[in-house]
Specification:
The structure is a single chain. The protein is about 45% helix and about 20% strand. It is of the alpha+beta class. Strand 5 (about 55-60) and strand 6 (about 60-65) form a beta hairpin. The model is unreliable at about 10-20 (pLDDT under 50).
Length: about 290
């Protein structure tokens, strides 16, 4: 399992079936993981906060969220999730491919005005969707119906899920802003290249110069751009990514701590143990034993 799959989809509540790409995953911060780092994917995602509070960052804009809030994430949007310090945050990740709602009719109105608009980022709306509003009532009702259909799994339940998703898309369309396009950073493509580079090479020695070369920026310009866009240095981002992967291996594998360190991109065991303890408040061994007791 990739790190993104682990941190986004830690506990499966509803399982996919072949040919029907719709899943709901239950997640808890900080019990399952400390945060979900900046990433993107081609599916539609909805973050449905059930308890607690935190921040969902979408296209580098931080959105405070609390129980009941809904945050739809469009395909390709950069996003991250972090809980409020000291507060247990429980949320559902609802992930589905817009392709399950596609029509083969070339002139299909929904495909042109809604599905393609969501994929292109030209259909935008208030985020988060706040409890107590008509927008929230419409959107939450549709998602709850889909959730119930998946739990019951009666014959033909996919029809109920699809009809609920169309109701959800209608809520988005009815509350849309004037067509302005996705408010993406001018550096979004470069940032995505860096994140993909880290995902593919984090277990190898990586320097600022290596990451800068991916963007074709000078190292100095790259460091300024990365900090401006993410609020942290590249070295901190890389270290956090490696630590997240190390925590995954400690929970999910029986690898020795030394092997976990090396597979996560830390080639000095003493440094790994020190930085892991500083980050998680526990040594790697203590962290592993904590989860073995559950």
């Amino acid at each position: 399992m990739e790190l993104e799959s682990y941190t986004q989809y830690h506990e499966t509540k509803l399982h996919d079936q072949p040919g029907f790409s719709y899943n709901t995953y239950l997640c808890t911060i900080p019990q399952d993981f400390l945060r979900v780092d900046l990433h993107w994917h081609e599916q539609m995602e909805i973050i449905y906060v059930k308890k607690g509070s935190g921040t969902v960052t979408v296209n580098m804009t931080a959105l405070p969220v609390s129980a009941g809030c809904l945050v739809p994430i469009l395909p390709g949007e950069l996003h991250a999730i972090e809980g409020t310090p000291g507060v247990r945050m429980e949320y559902e990740n609802i992930i589905f491919s817009l392709s399950i709602l596609e029509s083969t009719d070339e002139n299909d109105w929904c495909r042109t005005h809604v599905i393609r608009a969501l994929e292109n980022g030209t259909l935008t709306f208030p985020r988060p969707i706040l409890p107590g509003t008509d927008f929230h009532r419409q959107a939450a009702q549709a998602l709850d119906l889909a959730d119930h259909a998946c739990m019951e799994r009666t014959s033909g339940y996919a029809l109920l899920v699809k009809s609920s998703l169309f109701q959800f898309l209608y809520a988005l369309y009815s509350n849309r802003y004037p067509e302005t396009g996705r408010p993406a950073s001018q550096h979004e493509d470069s940032l995505k290249k860096v994140i993909l580079f880290v995902k593919e090479h984090f277990a190898e020695p990586i320097t600022v110069e290596d990451a800068a070369a991916v963007t074709e920026y000078s190292p100095a310009h790259f460091m300024r751009f990365f900090r401006q866009e993410t609020g942290q240095t590249f070295i901190r981002f890389l270290s956090d990514y490696r630590l997240s992967y190390a925590s995954y291996l400690l929970k999910e594998s029986g690898d020795p701590v030394s092997a976990v360190a090396e597979k996560s991109g830390f080639f000095n065991l003493s440094y790994f143990i020190r930085i892991f303890r500083s980050h998680f408040g526990l040594s790697p061994g203590q962290y592993r034993r904590q989860f073995q007791k559950r």
